[in-house]
Amino acid sequence: MGRLALLAALPLLGFLINGVVGPHLPKRVVATIGCVLPALAFVLALDRFAALPGGAAGITETLYRWVGIPGFSVDVSLYFDAITAVMCLVVTGVGTLIHVYSIGYMADDRSFARYFAYLNLFLFFMLVLVLGKNLVVLFIGWEGVGLASYLLIGFWFEDPEKTAAGVKAFVVNRVGDTGFVLAAFLIWSVVGTLDFQSVNSYFSSHHVDGQLVTVIGLLLLLGACGKSAQIPLHVWLPDAMAGPTPVSALIHAATMVTAGVYLLARLNGLYLATPTAMSVVAGIGAATALLGASMGVTQTNLKKVLAYSTISQIGFMVLACGLGAFAAGLFHLVTHAFFKACLFLGAGAVLHALHGEEDMRRMGGLAGKLPFTFATFLVATLALCGIPPLAGFFSKDEILAIAWSSSHGIPWLWLIGVAASGLTAFYMFRAIGLTFFGGRDAPAAVHAPPPSMSIVLAVLAAGSVVVGFIGLPAIWQHVLGLRAPFHELLGPVLPEPSQTHLEASTEWLLMAAAVLVALVGIVLAWLRYGRARAPAIKAGRPGPLYALVSRGYFFDTVYYGGVVRFMDWLSESVLGRGVEAALASASLTRPAAGASRASRWLARMETGNVQAYVFYVAVGLALTLWWVASK
Asked: Measured between alpha carbons, how far is 383 from 433 in angstroms, rounded to an integer?
């Protein structure tokens, strides 16, 4: 077994051990297996990263030929280049930290072994997804993370609401997967292969019908919208909070929702051949960034605030890919993995201290009782808001600068991005005010998180501070005298955006404007929710705008009324009572009735009269001779 295969197989081994014999092992052994194997995968990812040959070359490892028929062959091949390295390090690094955090968070759960088995399975499929050299292998991981998310979101399956949330995530993702599969068929019909390097090279060097390439790009975007929870397939992600909080961190920060961004970046050659699809990608990303941020403003559930934040931040990554800035999108993916994992796990520490309470209206005054959790949550929030010099500032600022330079006239995409940034700062400090301040007494029986949780929060908070420096934009490289190893790594494999570079003075003004808008959002949220005399949120009759936003712009209502109920009516009234009844009658009821009548008629012939039997034989013989003679 090669090292790339071993890299993916290590979490799979953890799944098999804990899934089969884990319930009979001590919890300490289960936790050791569940955490050590992903950690070894991280070490192996570092080893493969150090072994990269440099430039655009990568490491290929072919395991076996899966399909070999005339005109179509598929190898189970793994590929490790700069893009794969970034994804593998994030998946295994942040994923391992979430596993370690789970030791303390899930210590009292009676399905401890099953939980770690599912977490390991999730990492395995995500590694298969990012290591796949072609669309078929990627699709195995793509479907696998969908399965693992279903298992983890509905982990507490005794609760019907949690089971329904897992089913919703599974079904919505199947809609996106339909687009993915159709796009794969079209790519094979055009290129004759599903290998990523060959696909990108073909679309970069051959003239292909523009409408066909656009259709392929839009179908792939549909798949990305499903996995990365972009409009209009974002509705599953807030309900994914039904699972344990570390699961939310794993889905939102390190694995599943980043898969769509990875797909767009991996097929960059195809997308650069279709400006129309690129414009749609950018538009979807910008709209999701703004709408996701606006929906976060009205939430009262702490985890759902972070869920809508993820939808919004993934929108920034998709926006970057739509503008051709694939490296900038991946850079924001990396920084987001640290501060969003820190936020979710910080929220988990709050829930752990409050015995599962998630409603911010029942919180308040926790800053003094959970000072370490508050400090890490604050650092990660500032990084998310784009406050310098934290990680989110550098990655999001780069995307906003590219959005400005791509404009021809009114910079709509930049304005949308800045508005989303301001709303992000507002709703995040609203959450901090309601959870940690607000002049309300802290609930009784609050306890600090155990060391396994606190250490992980400290590491992720530190990452939220320093990770941004690996991908400094050019203007900051000049000021600080530092290099940008992240962009140097991805430069040979990802094209630069076609937009012209901005003047230094313009870049400084854009940065200042973005930071100023974020600070305004912070101040407004603090004045309303953070002061000692600020009241708690009170239930009341919402206005029409508030109702629109708080109900998610009625996406769920439309889907339920226009799709779910229609399909129920179609399956029960039309197919069930009409088509299915007719088919059942034609294929089952009528043949059974005919057989019953025939058997009764034949039974009458069984009289016991020998002369009658001879007569039957004579008639049968005569009919046989007649049939032969007629031939």
From this structure: 17
Is 473 found in the same domain as 598?
Answer: no
Question: 81 and 58 in contact (C-beta within 8 Å)?
Answer: yes
**Which range of residues forms the domain containing residue 625?**
557-630
Tokens of 412: 């709509």
Within 8 A by CB and 6+ apart from 54, the residues are: 492
- The distance from CA 43 to its chain's CA centroid, rounded to whole angstroms, is 24
Most distant CA atoms of the chain, gap in Å: 116
SS3 of 525-540: HHHHHHCCCCCCCCCC
pTM of the model: 0.89
CB 391 within 8 Å of CB 338: yes
| Predicted pLDDT of residue 554 | 86
> Does residue 488 sit in the same domain as residue 591?
no
Q: How many domains does the chain have?
A: 2
Closest CA to 235 of 545, 552, 561: 552
Q: Is 78 helix (H, G, I), strand (E, B) or coil?
A: strand
Q: What is the pLDDT of residue 83?
A: 94
Residues of the chain with pLDDT under 50: 533-534
- Encoded amino acid at 193, one letter: T
Is the CB of residue 162 less than 8 Å from the CB of residue 154?
yes
DSSP 587: I
Cβ–Cβ under 8 Å, residues 365 and 437: yes
Instruction: Quote the pLDDT of residue 499.
Output: 65
Query: Would you say the C-alpha torsion 206, 208, 214, 215 has a positive or negative sign?
Result: negative
Based on its alpha-carbon atoms, the radius of gyration of the chain, rounded to whole angstroms, reads 29
Dist CA 100 CA 628 (whole Å): 83
Instruction: Output the DSSP codes for 205-241.
Output: HS---HHHHHHHHHHHHHHHHHHTT-TTS-THHHHGG
**608 and 568 in one domain?**
yes
Backbone φ and ψ for 65, nearest 5 degrees, come out as -85, 120
Closest to 83 (Cα-Cα) out of 62, 47, 58, 61: 58
pLDDT at 500: 62
Q: Could you tell me if 254 and 98 are in contact, meaning their C-beta atoms sit under 8 angstroms apart?
A: yes
Q: Yes or no: say if 232 and 283 are a contact pair by the CB < 8 Å rule.
A: no
- Do 484 and 609 lie in one domain? The reply is no
